What does this fold into?
Amino acid sequence: MNVQVENLEKNMAKLTVTVDAAELEKAITKAYNKQKNSISIPGFRKGKVPQNMVEKMYGAEIFYEDAANIVMQDTYPQAYDESALDIVSQPQIDITQLEKGKDFIYTATVAVKPEVKLGKYKGVSVTKVDTKVTATEVNDTIKAELERAGRLVTKTGKAANGDTTTIDFEGFIDGVAFEGGKGENYDLELGSGSFIPGFEDQLVGHKAGEDVEVEVTFPENYQAEDLAGKPAVFKCHIHEVKGKEIPKLDDEYVADTTEFETVEEYKASVKERLENNKKAEGRRAQEDEAIAKIVEDSEMEIPDAMLDYQVENMINDFVNNMAGQGLSLQQYMQFTGMTMDAFRDQVRPDALSRTQSSLVLEAIAKAENIEASDADVDARLEDMSKQYGMELEQIKNLVGDNEKDSMKKDIAIEKAIEFVMDNVKETAKKKTTKKADDEAGDAEEKPAKKTTKKTTKKAEDAE
It folds into this structure.
């Protein structure tokens, strides 16, 4: 095999790969063996027709497509390595010569990682983060936690927003029931906005046992085009109305449901947790701000193929996450009314930002000689063993050299972020018209006195 590299404009390159005719012949035979059981010729049993007979009757080209794929799958990884290029896209393949008895020649057009001309990356200014937590924020968090801990209890009165109704319903347009408009024993939280606008509001004020006709109009952009913009009537029967019973916040509740003994101690822990959350969120916001400024001050030319590759990777990650929730990409497209092209356009700006950020951080790591050591990798593998509940040696045996190299790159980028953040300059946040961000804000509560806890665990995010 021979590989020739031609550098193209805009960080693109073309690999011309020449494979010996003998290798193509072997691939054609493999293609024949793959297809022979499906080939039928009078006078021969299936799977017993000689290769030369098949080629004589149907032409040698009958096996070319499979043979070409076999050769390229076998040779492209080697061509990739021999090119010594830092390839950052899937190859665009073109076959330039495919003929029995001759060398097989194909080209692979690829994107190459662009060089980055770094701008200022030390002493970047970022907005100072306010991690102060007010009494209102503490109380709102506790209120939300109490509501989540609430239990539904049957009520005899009228349904109100926040209540959950168990209903049967059937939808009609012009007096005719439509497909997908029927449900039985459906639990609907009023005010949740999970049904068509106006639907839930018309159940408010009704009791269990009542029949209600709900009149709504489907939104113009509704995903089912045959229903979009049309008025409909839903005949509903309310089986049950349940209200949420919110627990009372007192020492007994705290002792029974948390690691703390008193309300005072619980509130102090919530405040500490919120402060930690604000610090973590603020750190992420500062990292994003700093990296965005470095990107803006740097120069790089990102090839479209590289960006396309990142878009597809992000879509694949999204599809995998959706699958974990039992939702297919097709279903997502139906629910949102989006096309794949529109979805790619939506993802593309984020893909560009991620690509630019990764490139400048790699460039910073290189400029500052930041690398991941074997000890860093071992520490990461140890974290993985704890995460998956596996022995460390077992994890080491499962992780190959390529995965370790990828891990080293990720760790180096993380270290580059730390380097940037160790050198940032914080600037005060611009004042807003709101008085000092509620500075006396809800007059913060006095620090709670320390009391004995059930455990030494502090401020764990129980949300």
